[in-house]
Amino acid sequence: MEYYLDHAATTKPCPAAIEALQRCLTTHYGNPSSLHRLGVEAQREVEQARSWIAAALGCTPQEITFTSGATESNHLAITGAVQTYGKRKKKLVVSAVEHASVRNTMQHLQNSGYQVVTVTPDKNGCYHAADFLAEVDENTCLLSMMLVNNETGYCLPVQSVFRAAKRRFPELITHCDAVQGFLKIPFQVHTLQADLLSVSGHKIHGVKGIGALYQKNGVHLHPTFYGGSQERGLRPGTESVPLIAAFGAAVQTYGGTIRERYQLVAEKKAYLLEQLQTIPNCKVHSTADASPYIISFSMQPYRSEILLHFLEKRGIFVSSGSACSKGKKSGVPVLFGATELEADSILRVSLSAETPNKALDVLVSELQAAREVLLY
Ligand code: PMP
Questions:
Q1: 73, 75, 78, 101, best to mutate for ligand 1 pocket (most atoms within 8 Å of CB)
Q2: Is 355 in the pocket of ligand 1 (CB under 6 A)?
Q3: Is the pLDDT of residue 322 over 70?
Q4: Whether residue 324 lies in the annotated active site
Q5: pLDDT of residue 240
Q6: Of 94, 84, 214, 230, nearest to 161 (Cα)?
Q7: What is the DSSP string of 54-85?
Q8: Which residues contact 326 (CB under 8 A, 6 or more apart)?
Q9: CA proximity to 288, closest of 154, 181, 124, 160
Q10: Given this model, what pLDDT does residue 326 score?
């Protein structure tokens, strides 16, 4: 048996996504820019997906640009906005717990002369709106905050910060990496007051290599490379129709059940937390109000990788942290209040509404077994 508990890293494509992929590889394989029937069919696939994604985000289809994934969406949002709005305003404000695609883009901009202010959580691992608002001023070009942290599930106060910041500085550009919240936590771009927002296909049962960027009507971005007029010239290159159609199909499949799935997953999280309490030295790092989809815990003195491979041999797939860090130590758990020693033994379990409770039972019993078998 295999138990996949790593949905924050990626998800299995849903049947509707695979069907859309297949259709666009075999029948609707035209180039959307072609004027003939095959081109028109392909264009229809792209526009259908765009309107489903727009509906899920609460925006118009014209406000959606397809990219190769959220890494590119984040990069395009931040560098595109800075090139347009950052000529005089050189300050960028960002949370300290962002995904590497935001963090390293900010690092690059800092090296190029921008002032990047990083806001860290308090000693209990909590963020307060006031900490961000204290940093935003009339010289701030962009404020970037993720919706749900990919390592702990912590939900940042994006809505309250963006709203208050926009009230004081209406020209401020707000960007949100919503990858781990999309179709999991109910939100709409206008309630968040996000000008730019990034999502990814493979985290929501679509396919890898496709993402989207919401760009509020009236907000202008410089393209990061140049070519044809696809995606209004902002993201040139022949559209990946199969991946786009699969993304749209996944959004259409899951878009109507966010609250029901949230409830189901919250029950699974509660069940797992109860079971984890029975394991000595097991400490849960995700807070009670975090996204139920992500649970971070440590089991000292065992190192994350040792536990991860122990579980893998027994058919259980979890993560030692962010999948993107590929075993490299992440500083994020410590920022959220874990000690260095705890951070060394952190595991991340990430759920879907379809995760069977049996998987959680097996996980807990194998963690119990690990304590008897493994050397430190
Ligand atoms: N942001 C967050 C919060 C993520 O979890 C990820 C994926 N690990 C990304 C961005 C990057 O997404 P993609 O894999 O589509 O480039």
A1: 101
A2: no
A3: no
A4: yes
A5: 98
A6: 94
A7: HHHHTS-GGGEEEESSHHHHHHHHHHHHHHHH
A8: none
A9: 154
A10: 60
- Which pair of structure tokens corresponds to residue 214? 């919401």
At 197, list the tokens.
């927002």
Residue 227 Cα to ligand 1 middle (Å): 25
DSSP class of residue 258 equals H
Rounded Cα gap, residues 334 and 341, in angstroms: 10
177 lines ligand 1 (CB under 6 A): yes
pLDDT above 70 as % of the chain = 97
- Predicted pLDDT of residue 305: 94
CB of 150 sitting under 6 A from ligand 1: yes
- Two tokens, residue 12: 């299995």
List the structure tokens of 192: 């968040």
The pLDDT of residue 329: 72
Burial profile 241-276: b = 16 or more Cβ within 10 angstroms, e = fewer? bbbbbbbbbbbbbbbeebeebbebbeebbeebbebb
pLDDT tens for 75-117 read 999 999 999 999 999 999 999 999 999 999 999 999 999 999 9
Q: What is the DSSP letter of 94?
A: E
Residue 373 C-alpha to ligand 1 middle, in angstroms? 35
Give the side-chain half-sphere CA count within 13 A for 253.
18
Is residue 146 lining ligand 1, measured as CB closer than 6 Å?
Answer: yes
- Taking CA atoms only, the protein residue closest to ligand 1 atom 7 is 9
Question: If you ran DSSP here, which 8-state letter would residue 301 be given?
Answer: T
Q: CA 94, CA 215: separation in Å to the nearest integer?
A: 18
C-alpha of residue 83 to centroid of ligand 1, in Å: 23
Partners of 213 in the beta sheet? 65, 198
Whether the pLDDT of residue 321 is over 80: the answer is no
Q: What is the pTM of this model?
A: 0.97
> What's the Rg (C-alpha) of the chain?
21
User: Does any ligand 1 atom lie closer than 6 A to the CB of residue 179?
Assistant: yes
Q: Which structure tokens are listed for 216?
A: 């509020």
Query: Which amino acid makes up residue 223?
Result: P
Verify cis geometry, omega within 30 degrees of 0, for the bond prior to 301. Answer: yes
Report pLDDT for 324.
Answer: 47
CA of 74 to the centre of ligand 1 (A): 9
Side-chain half-sphere of 239: how many Cα atoms within 13 Å? 34
